[in-house]
């Protein structure tokens, strides 16, 4: 009886809280709800329900996929401890507090990356019936977790997109993403896998058909499979993607047997971007509540980059949704998102959290977990007890309160949707040290200038571009590393600069003190106050040791009262900058 009451409360919550907005749906080339056109602004949950080796930091040990990680744990600490770990992992990695925070920071949706194994068994573990068909065994865990997530979305009035990130058998050769096992039949090579995916979507659609805070169903993420000889193994250059369109149509028809309310999202080949042969396929006319998706990584953000997608939107009369992007710098984020917003295209970033600087929540990796990965690399595994303790530590580190909030990433994504404004990173005052790493929030060319501020290697035809050589503290082009647990700016080059906004209580002459180190050559800075050069050259002495810092003082620096914007421009680099202070 208690479970029935809980379910009733859950359903009432969903229906009441969404009453004012209604179901998200399509209207020609727009996505709308009852209030009009709606732009999805979200992030994917990433590593929560489908683990990828790079986010688990285990690729160096040859552990690349969700199943490989699971099996490695079973091998080293047993099934019981592995089950305990995954219970803790799911409970900690993404919680209501994460969603509450996302809402407060300006996001209105979340794309949950699902693995089918939380909902049903692999075909290899199912029984075969007398007629040759396989049974379908359902697992409650996935449905329970999705129910909880949906209830949090309803309470926050945020939309939820169900993203089948790991389909039965794996939908792409990129195994890190899809959990594809080369020794087993893929989604494309097995009718049983296709049938299982079909059954799963019917089950999900039937369960959530009356939930207005479900935005829709992303039927399978980033298919990447070469179907023709002209294609790459991942489907790039493939001119006949009929198997993808046929499966989409099959899944849409299956969903529509139980749910006519929700959007269905379709994805092209080549990690979601190759739509060749769609024009000659009946899928383009299969449904009147369908959205074309695409993914965008590591390319330019100029006005031409969306032309092909905009043309497709008009040709098919369907809305667009940029369903996955990220893994770049703040400037790239802001420029890309502004481009989508200008063209009325919703977007979803990737992912909410991991152990890097380019997410809204940065996970601090415990020493115990780093030691575990090292032991795997060296093929000298830790004990059962040590392994269990390490992975539990890693699960604990993913709690919101144990992560580092990244205000620079948040501002880049939701604070600059249609502007180029800057604002202080922290509250700065005179007579107190200001870290050089605490320059203003904002784009390259506005809050700072750096010669490499983003990765555009896809369009530039070159190597991956590192925008922050230290990969520390912030996600801008400014290169930051650590000294005595303090962030310092390093690898600086001529013409680069950083801006700091603070309030000066009293106009007057101040003494500027700069703490810096210069191992081999002296450095030279230029001080600019409110766009006026105040000190032409500030010479920072050679210290002979990059870890030896000295103070350089410049007297009688004039500062006006009120809000002041100070820039330090690099005239001669090869120095490390710790902090500065204006003393009265």
From TrEMBL:
The keyword Ligase does not apply. PROSITE patterns: CBM6. One of its GO terms (cellular component) is cell surface. One of its GO terms (molecular function) is carbohydrate binding. The keyword Kinase does not apply. One of its GO terms (biological process) is glucan catabolic process. SMART domains: CBD_IV (SM00606). Keywords: Glycosidase, Hydrolase, Signal. Residues 456-583 form the CBM6 domain. Pfam families: CBM_35_2, Cellulase. Residues 1-20 form the signal peptide. InterPro entries: CBM35 (IPR041342), CBM6 (IPR005084), Cellulose-bd_IV (IPR006584), Galactose-bd-like_sf (IPR008979), GH (IPR017853), Glyco_hydro_5 (IPR001547), Glycosyl_hydrolase_5 (IPR050386). Belongs to the glycosyl hydrolase 5 (cellulase A) family. This is Glycosyl hydrolase family 5. It comes from Flammeovirga pectinis. The lineage of its organism: Bacteria, Pseudomonadati, Bacteroidota, Cytophagia, Cytophagales.
